[in-house]
Amino acid sequence: MKTIIARSFVAKLSLLCVAGGITGAVLLTPAAVNAAALLRTALTLAAGEDPSLPKCDPVGLETCAVGDARMINGPIVRVTVENMDPARFPAGPACSAEITAGAISVKGIHLVADVAPDGRPVTAVDLKKPGTVKIGDKVHVTVKCQFTDAHGVVQKHETQWGGSF
Q1: 114 DSSP β-pair partners
Q2: What span, in angstroms and rounded, lies between the C-alpha atoms of 50 and 104?
Q3: Which residue has the higher pLDDT, 146 or 14?
Q4: How many C-beta neighbours within 10 Å does residue 72 have?
Q5: Residues 6+ apart with CB under 8 A from 42
Q6: SS3 sequence, the chain?
Q7: How many Å apart are CA 95 and CA 140, to the nearest integer?
Q8: 152 vs 163: CA distance, rounded Å
Q9: With b meaning 16 or more CB within 10 Å and e meaning fewer, what string describes 128-146?
Q10: Terminus-to-terminus CA distance in the chain, angstroms?
């Protein structure tokens, strides 16, 4: 419950920053809320399709796709994009993510299955890697999917997210 409340607070605060025109700003929140983040930035949809669940609720249940990047104690860099629609962005090898955060660059990350706050299945990309970032470093996430659906039709989906520390 504490994690959901913390995620809710951070997501709403990030939406306020975006609504206020402060996109890409560094958001420093209390350690209890932000899992001891030393630096954090919200990621925004930069290109491609919105991977959110159909009829997502960004306010009440927070079921729309959301991303962030942070440097936490360790130092560890963590980059996530979550609440993606598994019908278009399935878990496993059908999708591959490429993440760049400052000098960190990783390719070939598979999506993982997760559950949205309202109980619907979703997928997410979640990278945790030792390293550091600094204010001004760019973050970029690209997720590309290609698979054949139940009707035999080849599906291709792509979403790109970005931000700056």
Answers
A1: 122
A2: 25
A3: 146
A4: 17
A5: 14, 17, 18, 23, 27, 66, 67, 68, 163
A6: CHHHHHHHHHHHHHHHHHHCCCCCCCCCCCCCCCCCEEEEEEEEEEEECCCECCCCCCCCCCCCCEEEEEEECCCEEEEEEEEECCCCCCCEEEEEEEEEECCEEEEEEEEEEEECCCCCEEEEEEEEEECCCCCCCEEEEEEEEEEECCCCCEEEEEEEEEEEC
A7: 16
A8: 36
A9: eeeebbeeebebbbbbbbe
A10: 28
**How far is 30 from 101, CA to CA, in rounded Å?**
22
Extract the tokens encoding 161: 């997210």
The predicted-structure confidence for 12-51, as pLDDT tens digits, reads as follows 444 433 333 433 333 333 334 445 678 899 999 999 999 9
Letter for the amino acid at 129? K
The letter for the amino acid at 14 is S
The two structure tokens encoding residue 141:
């996430």
What distance in Å separates the CA atoms of residue 95 and residue 111, rounded to the nearest whole number? 6
Cα separation, 161 vs 165, whole angstroms: 14
Q: Are 39 and 63 in contact (CB under 8 A)?
A: no
Average pLDDT across the chain, whole number: 82
